[in-house]
Amino acid sequence: MPNIKSAIKRVKTSEARNAQNVTVKSSMRTAVKKAEAAIVNEDTAAAKTAYANAVSQLDKAAAKGLIHKNAAARKQSRLAKKLNSLNA
C-alpha cells in the first residue's frame, strides 16, 4: 500500500474506475449474447430489440474506451449480418 497521499488517492480512483468498467463491459457482453441467442432461436421480434440494445451497449463501451471503436463496429456488423440472414 502506498504511503504518499496522491498515490493513495490514485489507488482508490483506479479501483472505482475498474469496478465501473467491469460493469459496463459485462453488460455489453450480456447484451451481445442475448442478441445472438435470439437470432439462433429465430425469434425475429426479440432479435430486433436485442440487436438494438446490443448496438447501444457496444457504442457506449467504445465511447468510454473499453473496446476499440473498430472492434465495436465489427461486432455490430456481424450481428447485423446474422439478423439480416434471419429475415431473408
Give me the secondary-structure topology.
Layout (H helix, E strand, L loop, with lengths): L4 H36 L3 H20 L5 H19 L1
Share in helix:
over 70%
The termini sit apart by 58 Å
Q: Kindly state the mean pLDDT as a whole number?
A: 96
Specify the CATH homologous superfamily. Ribosomal protein S20
Level-2 CATH architecture: Up-down Bundle
Q: How many structurally independent domains? A: 1
Pfam families: Ribosomal_S20p
Family: Belongs to the bacterial ribosomal protein bS20 family.
GO cellular component, one term: small ribosomal subunit
GO molecular function: small ribosomal subunit rRNA binding; structural constituent of ribosome
Describe the structure.
The model has no long low-confidence stretch (mean pLDDT 96). The protein starts with a helix and ends with a helix. With 88 residues, the protein is an all-alpha fold. The chain is elongated, with a radius of gyration of 17 Å. 85% of the residues lie in helices and 0% in strands. It has a single domain, classed as Ribosomal protein S20 (Methane Monooxygenase Hydroxylase, Chain G, domain 1). Keywords: Ribonucleoprotein, Ribosomal protein, RNA-binding, rRNA-binding. One of its GO terms (cellular component) is small ribosomal subunit. Belongs to the bacterial ribosomal protein bS20 family.
